[in-house]
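User: Modeling request: complex.
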Amino acid sequence: MTDQATEREVGRARPRKEDARLITGQTNWTDNISVNGLLHMAILRSPMAHARITRVDVSPALERPGVIAAFSGADLAEGLGSLPCAWPVTEDIVLPDHPPIAVDEVRHAGDPVALVVARDRYAAADALEAIEVDYEPLPPVLDLEAALAQDSPLVHSDKGTNSCYVWPLKTGEAFDSVRERAEVTLTRRYHHQRLIPNAMEPRAVVVTPLAASGEYTLYSSTQVPHIVRVMMAVVTGIPEHKIRVVAPDVGGGFGSKLQVYGEEALALAVARRIGRPVKWTESRSEGYLATHHGRGMIQDIEIAANRDGKLLGLKVDLLVDMGAYLMLVTPGIPILGAFMYPAIYKMDSYDFTCTGVFTTRTPTDAYRGAGRPEATYAIERIMDDLAVELGLDPVELRRRNWIGHEEFPYTSIAGLTYDSGNYEAATDKALSLFDYDKLRAEQADRNRRGDSVRLGIGVSTYTEMCGLAPSRVLRDLRYAAGGWEAASIRMLPTGKVEVVTGTSPHGQGHVTCWSQIAADVLGVPFEDVEVVHGDTKASPQGMDTYGSRSLVVGGTAVHSAAEKVVAKARKVAAHLLEASEQDLDFSDGVFSVKGSPDARKTIQEVAFETFTSHDLPDGFEPTINAEHLIDPDNFSYPHGTHLCAVEVDTETGQTHIRSYVCVDDVGKVINPMIVEGQVHGGLAQGIAQALYEEAVYDDEGNLVSGTMTDYFVPSAADLPEFTTERTETPATSNPLGVKGVGEAGTIASTPAVVNAIVDALRPLGVQDIRMPCTPERVWRAVREAQA
Amino acid sequence: MTRISVKVDGTTYQDEVEPRLLLIHYLRDRLGLTGTPIGCDTSNCGACTVELDGVSVKSCSVLAVQADGGEVTTVEGLARDGELSGLQRAFHEKHALQCGYCTPGMLMAARDLLREHPHPTADEIRHALEGNLCRCTGYQNIVQAVQAASEQEVSA
Amino acid sequence: MIPPAFDYARPDSVDEAVGLLAGAGEEAKVLAGGQSLLPLLRLRLAFPELVVDVGRIPELRGVREDGDTLVIGAMTTHHDVIHDPLVRRHAALLASATATVADPAVRHRGTLGGSLAHADPAADLPGVVLALDGELVAQGPGGRRTIPARDFFVDYLQTALAPDELLVEVRLPKADDWGFHYEKFHRVAQAYAIVGVAALVRRDDGHIAEARVGLTNMGSTPLRAAAAEAALVGAGDAESVARATEAAAEGARPAQDMSASVEYREHLARVLTRRAVLAAAGMG
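Assistant: Request completed. Predicted assembly structure:
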């Protein structure tokens, strides 16, 4: 008899199945893929932010040794459609043409203009230098406000405007009316710098064509193989059923690989044209221009409240940098944040407007948190300022306004129904771990002494919406696809299990977690479960991985599919045991007849009996395999309280995170070790936005922070040790009780850090510091406040 | 073309290479040893870290011809007869990797540290790994794994 | 990215290396540890016809004493400098500053001579060698000559080395009796210094008898903070050091870049010089 699982898997800190290959170098990154006759593609990119292309001559490149082909944009224009934007957020949105390779105009530094295909990457790199291109410079468009002026130069001259869309959301009482009756109003302007996602694996694409049958396999370092497949069919005209997309090992994404990229279409088009397999791998500095950026937003926010701290309403006006083109979900990113500005607080009025603006910079799109970090930053920053204005402790102000745990489910002013939460519990736990009162005492002491090193405490009590997403909500938001997820389970004749998932992991640990979920439902050993993913041939249906959706939607689908397997197996077991289904118990993978425990069949035995099909119930379809697609009813709403203590050297502006405590509530936890890891990584990226990272452009639109030497991704030496804890308030919107966790740390941490810095410097007159809070900005803020 | 002889993970290879060929491309494209990845073009990220003649180096910033006559150990040479090294085990047990792209370099950098400082403090570990970037883990579990590995070696 | 093609030579001796450089003229680049040159080549910011790899010339490596002078071979790696007992005894400032250069893997390959010959004003070691009153020995077809560090750094990435000259050793007067400190201020651990200050202080009877201050990234070359050095003589407490170091940025012409404005760099130079001197003088 096969071993049965007797210990529950869900909730166990299982070391990951994924690791065995990754720690020994037996990996399959896209750039590792090699096939006979493989050619290398290299792309010549615009050195200018905005210019007309007056001439491209690729012929000198063809004379270089080892060069097989070279193409200009015009050479490839036929048969290559515009890259898709799947989220036209308004009816009258401006949707510019987005050719995978520029034909007559370049609109950001890094826009592709020509390409070569050569025997190896060295020959391809050399040949690029031989291509001749003439440009006629056009004025760059860089400032979001100036871009909207009547006389601004245009990014897309045929569109007549740089305004992409205006998206409003007004709920509750009119904001003018609450402003009138408010005892206090505050207005603030916050800036979110552009960020470069920096997944450690640069992007890569390999296309292998089968000329005879017109079939193509596209390997890509992507988060979304299923979406890429559909979109490649649309862009290249190759029938969808002739395209197989594989996401092999993918080295991180953080939203940057939630995309359908021009290079995927170009590799496909070139492989089709020359009938040979083609590889393209970006270098890091090339990726800084070619892989989408994140954030890039100006926020004008106004909050209205009474003197006792009671919030009345919130008004938010956003200007958002789309970059030069609309990529897959570019316009929708700030809309994902639109519902989150009111956060965990009760109020009577909400007035939100978002304006998308084209600029001559690399397009923006999803970056970890996508819209929600921006929202959380704005509300949590202004809540701290309001607390000061009202003479309240920032935690106390939040307490007076948040939704009480007894009030769930609660429909927020923005219209979302939060299913569950306990802000009190998370906050109390965080305050105690942080030793809040003691740090406040030390802060007061330093202030009294006029210490040149000040101490600040930052608070961030956040929630977010994730687990994308109910398809009908997506329809209402004009997103072009659904938010369902698929899972199927195959019970193999020997009792082993294959779980096929539509999610596409790139570091999250789905193989381990899905194994834990399936093992528990099926009662089989964790080790007996294999998880298949990331290949449209092996996992034909899926909506992939982004927006902290995979566990909430995909993991739930695995759970439900496994329950279906058990239900089918129950019929077979009942037949074999000559009992009625109702008389069977199922526990730890064993069906047994109530009252006669010796009459039993394991689920593995049932699998084998089903395989032989010698003795199945009459009319029983001979399989216990099952598939389940789930479309969630609601988002999931993780929440938590983050507290950060920062020391600020007022003489140099240097900041130092002294302690960081967070208590997150992500509902039921499948694997606590993985959850903790997700939080750690999220914190690192959120802190990096607060302190270190920025895509800096000069006045001509050149990316100045163009290499990893100038874009400051923090190392282990730059980040503190985190104290991470949890409360567990199960979600009620899915059977597992789970909420997403991938983005929570990033969403919460940025305002916690900046709040702490401003808190440290408020006694010196500082009210705000623009991110990233570089030493010079901190120093200047102090100096200007003192002047 | 220049003739080189390099021992990699215990096997000696002799090849004609262009002088400009980077060691990392020699390992990946010529020898097919793709366990060591490339993460940047400015020697900042450390993903390509290998051991050359007993010390950690960034193989994107070494020419293959500079490794002539040398001995290279990569992540693929760490496990012996299928037995994981203490660091590899610790990375697994402490969940010190997520996507795993930085892991080969992290392992090699950590191995270098433990050779020089068998019992590093958390702070020493953080500084020793400053040339190796990870975007997934926030480093906390990496630091713990290195510490755990150093303790294992004490007890062993 | 991919380096452009070049010819490659790996001489066994300094004479051979100099001969190769003399033959190639301006089109040759010396490859020391490669930690500056290879990233430049990969980004295609340099296109040498010939790369002369001096990595296998034994006479260029190692540390020895020559009377009151410490002699460090140009190809001595950062790692070896940090751990060398002679350097730690006689030029401890250099050992401690070198420990802040880049990261351990880069320090295994990068060399003292390579860093100095690259002459990046944002690099840590040029200012340190300047503060140590070092001399650099170059060998060319006509033999050897000694160049004081203050004459060696000519401009941004430019030195007094002729195209056919090879930097062979660095000579540092022993600084056993000097207090020292290197104060590096940077955005993240492996970033270049926004400003760095190398301070050496000799005390006499509780007062500063002599101070030497080298500045990193405060101009197109590394600099000595001469005005502050002069003002520091006689300083006996933190307050007088603070007053003297107000002159630290005098004569500096720092660049404005992504990480700092001119004004901020000047401010940092003053603050960091004060801190470095106080630490070096044991007054901190």
